[in-house]
Structures are given as C-alpha cells and as structure tokens.
Specification:
The chain is an all-alpha fold. Helices cover 43% and strands 0% of the residues. It is elongated and about 60 Å long.
Length: 94
C-alpha cells in the first residue's frame, strides 16, 4: 500500500483548511494556509474566480480531506468470504 510522501502543506492548501498534518506548525502564523490562502499549482490563484462548485465536487473534496487526514489510500474492501477462503487455503496442508 502506497502513501503520500510529498509536501503535506500542499494538501492543506488544496483543501483550503488546516488538516494539521505538520503538527505545531499549523498553529503558528507560518502555516502556508494562512500565508497563501489559494490552492497550490500554476492555476491555484484562479480558483477564487471559479464558478459555483457542484454537489459532487463538494462530496469529493470531503472524501479527499478524510483520506488525507487519516492517511489511507482508496481501495475497495475485499469481501469477508474471500478473505476467509484465502486464509483457510493457506493454512491447509493437503
């Protein structure tokens, strides 16, 4: 399973809120979210001029925010029956 190893403050700026990924730095005035309140990247400053976001876009942003806070990747969970059958096959000696 892979995890994000890049700049964590970039994730905060993308979401537009503090995710407290850097610990104590997020409580100071040096936090990049406060210094640069726009999204990162070449077109980040243009996000202020964008039109209204759709309901799907809002839901996607919330999902991404939760993924970034807890540090989990997106994968579909395996069914319990499949997992159990794999375990029983691995443990059998026939």
């Amino acid at each position: 399973m892979a995890r994000y190893t890049g700049p964590s403050c970039r994730q905060c700026r993308r979401e537009g809120t503090k995710l407290f990924l850097k610990g104590i730095k997020c409580f100071t005035e040096k936090c990049p979210v406060e210094r640069r309140p726009y999204a990162p990247g070449q077109h980040g400053q243009a996000t202020a001029r964008r039109k209204k976001t759709s309901e799907y876009a809002k839901q996607l942003r919330e999902k991404q925010k939760i993924k970034r806070i807890y540090g989990v990747s997106e994968s579909s969970p395996a069914s319990p029956a499949t997992t159990c059958s794999r375990r029983s096959r691995a443990g059998s000696t026939t």
